[in-house]
Amino acid sequence: MENWGTGRRSAILYGLTGLGMLVALYMALGFAPTELTMGNVQRIFYWHVPSAWNGFLAFFVTLIGGIGYLRTGQRRWDVLALSSVEVGLTFSIITAITGSIWAKPTWNVWWVWEPRLTSVTIMLIIYAAYLLLRRMIDDPVRRANFAAVYGIAGFASVPITFMAIRWWRTIHPIIFQSQGFNLTGTMLIVFFACLIAFTLLYCTLLVLRMRLEFASDRVAELKARMERQ
Amino acid sequence: MAYLTAAFAAIWAVTFVFVLSIGARQRRLAIEVEDLHAELDKIEQA
Amino acid sequence: MRDALDAVWAIVRKDVVAELRTKETLSTMLIFVLLTVVIFNFAFDLRVDNTQQVAPGVLWVAFIFAGVLGLNRSFVLEVDKGCLEGLLLTPADRSVIYFGKMIGNVIFMLAVEAIGLPVFSVLFNLMLVRLDIILIVALGTIGFAGVGTLFSAMTANTRAREVLLPILLFPVVLPVILAAVKATAGVLDGLPLGEVANWLGLLAAFDVIFLAIAYMTFDYVVEG
Fold it and tell me: Which tens digit of pLDDT belongs to each residue from C153-186?
């Protein structure tokens, strides 16, 4: 894992991400039509939702990483899980902040305890707890095992929490319903462009974080060899 | 409009904080590697 | 299968007998439950007219805070006294340890709840000792102890173990608390059990899902 994240493929990824984010920026701010009822503030939606989806994707990847580690015992699955949690946290924080900023002009409150917002907050707490758990364990194998188990339990609880809170109350706009999307032509294109851009961003951040972790492993390994000299 | 700018700024700010934190940790690792190399040289000379 | 059940029962008996000798954990749990209600009384100024609104919430907060105390004990003692290694040396499947511990935890929580419910009935002037509430309490306790036993096995081996358990446990176990509180509230408001069926369903589903997850992952948690 020496040159992970530095090769030609990674360069292409980073380049595409940069390009994608610029395109997303232009499309959301300029290309997309202004919404009738909410005005310009509605444009936040083009970044808010992709962030939320990617936050969720990140935690799903952590689940995969956890299961992968438990089955194979290979460090790279653990690195994947850990890196994805950090990136997922970043996206979830963005989701919560942008959601809150959007809520103020729309509903006149900074925060609302409704299903999706609450679930994202709880998800955030669970994954912050994941990082805390890792910090409290010194042995790397035990750390990886426990983190994997917690990641699995945590991920399983999030949809149940969401359902439970939804049965309780809801005022969050439901854009994506089972029949189809509530968005029209141009808006749909802009949304998907932004979604692709943010997913590329997720991949980039994930690769960067994983590279850091592999490098850290190498250094620890070198240190251990040195002590033995 | 201010809200829009705020949201936009928040996204970039949070992302950059994350990237910068990775960068900072990477730099700390690099310093450790340098120290290790220095020690290695010392041992080889001894 | 027979051996496994015997092994589970042996662990449960060991924990119950050990606890009955000192009654340390049970008494601290009980006192904590009472303490929580008293504090809530002053924090929210619980008067006769609004106890029905807040009773379900206060009830469950009291139970889960006491529950965490009990959970902490279940593995911390084992780790501290080296009993865990002894248990691991037995030729039984690891999940036997999990179920034994979990059932023990459920029994302790149920014991505390069995005393707590009548006491709360008096303090709140509400009749809480009824079959439907007992059912909700049982389902909630199983879910809470199910996840709690798994996590306490982990945290017993870490630094700051007593503090870490609630941090890990509460967010994950939130649906149980939510469903239990809503179901209790519904039942106290006079709704028939059928009306709160979806909350009961959620509790049951949670219990099943997390017992399954715990069964599948417990090995990895006691190995190290």
Answer: 999 888 888 889 999 999 999 999 999 998 998 8
**Of C138, C107, C109, nearest to C13 (Cα)?**
C107
Q: Is residue A149 part of a domain?
A: yes
How far CA A186 is from CA of A20, A30, A34, A179, in Å, comes to 17, 12, 11, 19
Task: For residue A84, tell me if it sits in a domain.
Answer: yes
Q: Which residues of A touch C154 (CB under 8 A)?
A: 133, 146, 149-150
The answer to whether residue A89 is domain-embedded is yes
Interface test with chain B among A46, A86, A212, A217, by most B beta carbons within 10 Å = A212
Q: What predicted TM-score, i.e. pTM, was given to this entire model?
A: 0.87
Q: What is the mean pLDDT of chain A?
A: 85
Report chain B (46 residues): mean pLDDT per 10 consecutive residues. Answer: 84 92 92 86 82
Output the CA torsion sign for C104, C110, C113, C118. Answer: negative
What's the whole-number mean pLDDT along residues A117-134?
91
For the beta carbon of residue C134, count every other beta carbon within 10 angstroms. 15
Residue A3 inside a domain? The answer is no
Pick the residue of A42, A51, A86, A90 with the most B CBs within 10 A to test the interface with B by mutation.
Answer: A90
Which residues of chain B neighbour A51 with C-beta distances below 8 Å? 11
CATH of the domain at A61: 1.20.120
Q: How far apart are CA A105 and CA A42, in angstroms?
A: 10
User: Given a cut of 70, is residue C90 above it in pLDDT?
Assistant: yes
